[in-house]
Design goal:
Blueprint lengths: L2 E2 L12 E5 L5 E6 L4 E6 L5 E3 L2 E7 L7 E7 L2 E2 L3 E3 L5 H13 L23 E3 L5 E2 L13 E2 H18 L10 H14 L7 E2 L1 E3 L16 E3 L2 E2 H17 L5 H19 L23 H15 L2 H13 L13 H8 L4 H20 L16 H19 L2 H14 L24 H6 L18 H7 L15 H4 L3 H14 L3
Parallel strand pairs: 10-15
Antiparallel strand pairs: 1-2, 2-6, 3-4, 3-7, 5-6, 7-8, 7-9, 10-11, 12-14, 13-16, 14-15
Helix pairs in contact: 1-15, 2-3, 2-4, 2-15, 4-5, 4-6, 5-6, 6-7, 6-8, 8-9, 9-10, 10-11, 10-15, 11-15
The protein binds ligand 9MR (2 copies) and zinc ion.
Amino acid sequence: MNIQINQLGYTPAMKKTAVLRGRLGNQLQVKNASGETVLTVPVSAERTNLWDDELATADFSTLTQPGAYTLHCGEESSYPFVIDEKPYEACLTALVDMLYYQRCGDDLKPETGCFAHPACHTGLARVYGSEELVDASGGWHDAGDFGRYIVPAAKAVVDLLMAWEWNRGAFVPGLTELPDEARWELEWMLKLQRADGGVYHKVSCARFCGMIMPHEETEELILSPVSTTATGDFAACMAMASRFYAVSDPAFALRMKEAAGRAWDFLACNEPILFRNPEGITTGGYGDRNDEDERLWAAIELALTCKEEKFLAAAAERLTAIDRSAAPLGWADMRGYAAIEGMLLPGELGQLCRNWVLEEADRLLCRINAYGITMTDRLPWGSNMNISNDGVMLYQAYVLTGDEKYRQAAEKQLHYLLGVNPLSYCYVSGFGSQPMSHPHHRPSVAQGVCQPGMLSGGAASGMMDACAREHLQGQPAGKSFIDHFASYSTNEICIYWNSPMVALLACLLAK
Ligand code: 9MR
Ligand code: 9MR
Ligand code: ZN
């Protein structure tokens, strides 16, 4: 495809820009479903070289009439797309339902078809290095593997809760509803807290299993040691969730607030305990170089939830000390959550966080390339998460300023994920004309069918698996993607890659 569009379409009000590869012609025609040309617009004279292609754009924003269309330029055409009031509704539902499919320790509903399975990973887990057995059942499988890890879990849950708070009107229930689904994960997270407040980093088998269904993985479950990154994320996430459920379930909210307080107490009397896989464990590491951002984020959420002076003082001290030259919404670097949530703090602290968010959005804006995304030279493992995250951050600046440039930049992140990219993929399985369909996802491989509603990790320039090295060596960053189940570094799926896309859609669908 040489004319790239959002394969799910556009709302009438959106800015609509096609990206054209090569010298196709000077005019772009929009044709309706009967093949009649309904609009002709110029192709930009300006061309940009990016990722081994010469790119031009064509703005067809004046097309606002709901309907089905294709774009044409010279001999080339685009995939079909729609103009519709709600082009992303089904996708948003599927992105949330994905979390239901990832449930561990539950019998999946028959509606999940061939992905239904009896409750998995139900046995007690052994604490690493001891004979102690703990109930660590529940939660969501992290990704294409069946590990359950606290650090990425906190990111996923908070993304979802923020999305709901920002725009609950965007959500249509599917197999599940967002508050119930997030609670499924929170109940599991609570089980991973030790009596002294510290939180185990993860529960998994010793190593990754083969391409089997979840209930077929029956090796011993092991709780890996406590880390302060997991404990900090846990404290922040529980404190935030405690506010979220305060009205609907005060008892649950209190349980989480107390757990967050215990986690804080553990942090207060412990130096950083940074996680590395212990001897014999080779599942996901989620290692981190420091826990300053997790401690800051925890202080902010606890200050907002408990309104106690000690938390406010800790938040103030840490906010002034932390490096504010970036604010990512990562799983390792949580400064973005501190910045966004910190905007709710009173007085100068809130203002400092609003400035921090705006500065971050301006930095992102400067980095936007011809495909509309915020990264060009080096795309990390899971780049589609960063792209979704950046869209969310850009949208926060739109909320603060009302300046359309931020909103349009946020929209571009979505358009990239849904088709405006050099390989013309819709990176969400089951959606668009050219969906990603062969993910590194054990149930999909085992069933020989792709589960729907999963966002692929996407292009990654580091050649970090054998399949990528075999097929992608020498490709430019944006084309370093292969829709092959063996390429876990470009085509795995994750709970915390879906979750920021849920948040981005909630933002963009806000009235
Ligand atoms: O399946 C694993 C995936 O979930 C991880 O993201 C990835 C990197 O840690 O590792 C995958 O497992 C591979 C393992 O690391 C090496 N042997 C092949 C496994 C994939 O089948
Ligand atoms: O998403 C993680 C990515 O940022 C790291 O570079 C990568 C290697 O450490 O690990 C990714 O996380 C994987 C985790 O370790 C195991 N479950 C699947 C995750 C996604 O591939
Ligand atoms: Zn399981």
